[in-house]
Specification:
This protein has helices spanning about 15-25, 65-70, 85-95, and strands spanning about 1-10, 30, 35, 40-45, 50-60, 75-85, 110, 115-120, 130-134. Strands 1, 2, 3, 4, 5, 6, 7, 8 and 9 form a nine-stranded mixed sheet that branches. The chain has a single domain (about 1-134), classed as 2,3-Dihydroxybiphenyl 1,2-Dioxygenase, domain 1. About 20% of the residues lie in helices and about 35% in strands. The chain has about 130 residues and is α+β, with helices and mostly antiparallel strands.
Length: about 130
């Protein structure tokens, strides 16, 4: 079902500082910031040869990233995103298998403009998984 790793998302308390660290220390190519108010985050993508790193900063105290940073103030890995060929078929197979979808079973549009779903980390060894339509 899952395809390639699309990105690993890292929650950060300061997006500008994190972006500069990746640029300066690692020589990375970092995208311009993108605000996603419907998800409560501001993001940048670090381009790698075989995938991306998504740096996430909360947009306000109600952001799920704010809650994450309360537990891990310096940041950390928030989720991994895998591509799937058919987001609806993937959702249906996962629900049939007993997995819980966090966004009310309906895909939402993610940072790449494609449908995504998030899977309950309690069903996947404590890891929040995002599936994105390829």
């Amino acid at each position: 079902m899952i395809g390639r790793l699309n990105h690993v998302a890292i929650a950060v308390p300061d997006l500008e500082h994190a972006s500069e660290t990746y640029k300066r220390s690692l020589g990375a190519e970092v995208s311009e910031p993108l605000e996603l108010p419907e998800h409560g985050v501001r993001v940048v993508f670090v381009s790698l040869t075989n995938t991306k790193i998504e740096l996430l900063e909360p947009l306000g105290v109600d952001s799920p990233i704010s809650k994450f940073l309360t537990k891990s103030p310096s940041g950390g890995i928030h989720h991994v995103c895998y591509e799937v060929d058919d987001i609806y078929a993937a959702r249906d197979a996962l629900v049939k298998d007993g997995a819980r979808i966090l966004n009310k079973n309906d895909p939402v549009i993610g940072a790449h403009g494609k449908p995504v779903i998030f899977l309950n980390p309690k069903d996947f060894n404590g890891v929040l998984i995002e599936l994105e339509q390829s």
